[in-house]
Write a structure and sequence with these properties.
This protein is an alpha+beta fold. It has one domain (about 5-170): Aminopeptidase. It is about 25% helix and about 35% strand. It has five helices and eight strands; from the N terminus they run βαααββββαβαββ. Strands 1, 2, 3, 4, 5, 6, 7 and 8 form an eight-stranded mixed sheet that branches. Helix 4 (about 100-115) packs across helix 5 (about 130-140). The longest helix has 16 residues, at about 100-115. The chain is globular. InterPro entries: Acyl_CoA_acyltransferase, GNAT_dom, Ribosomal_N-acetyltransferase. This is GNAT family protein.
Length: about 180
C-alpha cells in the first residue's frame, strides 16, 4: 500500500499547477491570495536555481497515486543571533483541501527537515481565521504559541496570525 502523501522535488510538469496556486485567486483560496505577482517568476526560479538551498526550499506534495496536490516550503529565520530555525508553509490545490493532505505533508516536512538539517525548531503561522490550518498544524504535532497581532497584510487589511512550533525532540525520526 502506498503512502497517502509523500514529498518530492518539484518537476517540470508540476510548474503549471504550482503557478496556479499563487496566481489564480480561485486556487489560492481565502487565505492564500496576496495579489498578482511577477508572472513566470516561479518557473524562472525553478529553471535557474531549483527550489532547494541552504536557506530554504519547496517540495511538491504528492498524493498516494503520485499526482501533484500542492507544495510545502521552508525558509530560514532567526530567533537569536546564532539560533536559526525553519518557518514552513503549505499551499494545496482547492480541490485537494479537506482531505488530510495538509496535516500529513506538514508532518513529513518537519521529519525531513529534522533528519537533514541541524535546526532544533520549526515554526509555522497562519491567519487567526484559518481554523482548518490551525487544526492541521495541531494534528501534525505543532504547539500553538500565541497570536501575532496585525502581522499579515492581505486583502486590504492587517490580520492577526497564530504562531505554532515543533521542536526536534518532539518528532520521532526513523533511524
Amino acid at each position: 500500500m502506498s503512502e497517502p502523501v509523500r514529498l518530492r522535488p518539484v518537476v517540470e510538469p508540476d510548474l503549471d499547477l504550482l503557478e496556479r496556486l499563487y496566481e489564480d485567486p480561485s486556487q489560492a483560496g481565502d487565505f492564500g491570495f496576496f495579489g498578482y505577482r511577477n508572472p513566470g517568476q516561479l518557473r524562472r526560479q525553478w529553471s535557474e536555481q531549483g527550489f532547494v538551498s541552504g536557506q530554504g526550499g519547496r517540495l511538491a506534495v504528492a498524493a498516494g497515486d503520485g499526482r501533484f496536490v500542492g507544495e510545502v516550503q521552508w525558509r530560514q529565520v532567526f530567533q537569536g543571533p546564532d539560533s536559526p530555525c525553519w518557518n514552513i508553509g503549505i499551499a494545496l490545490l482547492a480541490a485537494e483541501r479537506g482531505k488530510g493532505f495538509g496535516k500529513l505533508a506538514q508532518r513529513r516536512l518537519a521529519e525531513y527537515l529534522f533528519a537533514h538539517t541541524q535546526v532544533n525548531r520549526i515554526e509555522a503561522s497562519t491567519e487567526s481565521a484559518n481554523i482548518a490550518e490551525q487544526k492541521a498544524l495541531e494534528s501534525a504535532g505543532f504547539t500553538r504559541e500565541g497570536v501575532l497581532r496585525g502581522a499579515c497584510f492581505r486583502g486590504g487589511a492587517w490580520r492577526d496570525m497564530v504562531l505554532y512550533s515543533v521542536l526536534r525532540g518532539e518528532v520521532a525520526l526513523e533511524g
